[in-house]
Structures are given as structure tokens and as C-alpha cells.
Amino acid sequence: MAWQWFHRLGSPRWFYEKTTSWLPWLAIISISLIVTAAVWGLAFAPADFKQGNSYRIIYIHVPAAFLALAGYYIMAISGAVGLIWKMKLPYMVMKSAAPIGALLTFVSLVTGSIWGKPTWGTWWEWDARITSMLILFFLYLGMIALQQAFQHRDTADKASAVLALVGMVNIPIIYKSVDWWNTLHQPATIKFTSKSSIDPSMLYPLLTMVIGFYCFYALVLLLNTRVEILRRENRTQWVNDLLGTTNKRVGQ
Amino acid sequence: MKFQFESIADFIAMNGHGPYVWASYGITFAVLIFLLVSPLLQKKAFVKQQQKQQKLAQANDSADESTN
């Protein structure tokens, strides 16, 4: 009984039907949070006494980097669940997470680079944090390429799940890079265990944006997974009922 | 909470950091919009393709029936 929810997670149909009603809520919440936080961070948060106005880029740089990492966890955990319990749905989530993660990593690299120019005086530096984020970007690209490299769905899923798990090695390196190598990238300013070294007037818009990005990520991951479900289940009765097409090959 | 700039022109210029800040926000929002729109378009394309196949299959079926 307690495990019923877990077995349901293996059912693409249950997942598809369950998530339909979540989409409008996620869309409303994420868009309003992101718009509020962007206006707040751009116009109403005070300027940084050292960096001036260029620091306003952190309101998108930090959330994008958070989600690039969180997205990797989701992808790797889905891959592991798929490998261990041989379920179909986790593989669909894993596949959908790869391009989203790649784009968010790209955003954090590009915004960091643009911020670096007026602040550090350079677009790019082979700093430990930046280099490990670049490796994360390549891992995501590798996932996308590997998905398309196999003719058989099963083989592609298993191979990319293994790649996602091996790539997990990079995650603690990214987190610890600012402490292990004391180079250009500044250490974390938001801490959960001790007092944050960022002023509340700057912290609140940033937290609003982070929550907005999380909701947006959930929305986009759901939308992509739902399309993937339809594609892979296109011969089943429930998908044909849903689309208003009858499926004679299965019915006969 | 107070508007941090003297004027709208000031807000856009951001003390010389304007191009950097606006470029970053522009790229980010372009990516976010793409992330949201692309699965919606993919779903639309998928539904269209399924309906097309359905029509083809029906046409084949009726052709089979007329020859029998």
C-alpha cells in the first residue's frame, strides 16, 4: 500500500493525467515570481557599493546556475531509478531534463561572462568554478548526443543513464570549487547553516527569483516530459483516445 | 522600497553598466521563452502528424475494402 505511489510513478498515463491540472498553476506562479523579481532586482534593489549596477546580473545568473545543478540531480536520479527498477517514465524525465539543463548552464555561463567584463575586466577566465560549469555544459550536450546515437530506445536510455551517473562526479567539484581553489569566482554568499553575507534588500529579490526559476523549471520539465510520453506511447489506446484518433492496429 | 534611479534614461544607462545588464537579461529571457514555447510547438506538431497518419491509414483501409 505504501509503495503504491511509487509503482504509479512507473505509469506514463497516470503521470500525464495527474500533471494536466498542475500546468496552469505552475505557469501563473512562475511567471509572476520571475517578472516581480526581475523588476525588483533591476530597479528597486540598491546598487552594490563595490560592483555598482553590474551586480544586478546575479538575479538571473545565480538562479540559472542553481537550476543547472538541480537539473543535473533530477536527470541523474531519474536515470538511476530507470536502471534499477526498469521503469519507462524516469527515462522520459531524464531525456527531457537534458536540453533544459544545457540551456540553463549556457545562461549561467553567458551571464557570468558578461558580468565578468565590467567587474573582473575579462570575459573569460579558466577559474575552477567556471571550468567545472563548462564541463557540466558538455555533460548535458553529451546526454543529448548519446540519446540520438542509438537506434534502440532501450540502449539509448541505459547508456545515457550511465553517463548521467558518471557525470555526478562533477557536481561536488562545482560546489567546492570556490573553496578548494581560491581563484577569481567569489565564494557563496547565501548560506543555509550560517548567516548569509548578502543584505536582505538584495537577498529577497534573489530568493524570489530562485523560487520562480524552480517553478519554471518544474513547468518546462513537465511540458517536455508530457510530449515525450505522447511520442513513446503513441500506439497505445489512451493516447489515441486523448488525441481523438482511433488506433486500429492495436484494436484488432 | 524606492526606485534606485533618477530617471528612465538613468535606469537604462545604469552608470555605464547598462549594455552588460540588459544583454544578460535579454539573453536569459529569450532562453526562458524558448524553453516554454518549444514543448508547446512540439506537441502541436506531434498531434498534427498523428492525425495525418490516421488519415493515411483510413485511406488505405478503404482502398483495401474496395478491392476485396
What report would you give on this structure?
The complex is a heterodimer of chains A (252) and B (68). Chain A has helices spanning 4-8, 12-19, 22-44, 58-85, 89-120, 128-149, 153-167, 170-180, 200-232, 237-243, 248-251. The longest helix of chain A has 33 residues, at 200-232. The mean pLDDT of chain A is 89. In chain A, helix 4 (58-85) runs antiparallel to helix 5 and helix 6 runs antiparallel to helix 8. In chain A, 75% of the residues lie in helices and 0% in strands. Chain A has 252 residues and is mostly helical. Chain B is an all-alpha fold and 68 residues long. In chain B, 82% of the residues lie in helices and 0% in strands. Chain B is built from 2 helices and no strands. Chain B has helices at residues 8-13, 18-67. The radius of gyration of chain B is 26 Å and the shape is rod-shaped. The chains are: A mainly alpha (252), B mainly alpha (68). Chain A binds chain B through residues 34, 38, 42-47, 52-54, 56-57, 60-61, 64, 100, 103-104, 106-107, 110-111, 114-115, 117-118, 216, 219-220, 223-224, 226-227, 230-231, 234, 240, 243-246, 248, and chain B through 1-5, 11, 14-18, 20-21, 23-25, 27-28, 31-32, 34-36, 39-40, 42-43, 46-47, 50-51, 53-54, 57, 61.
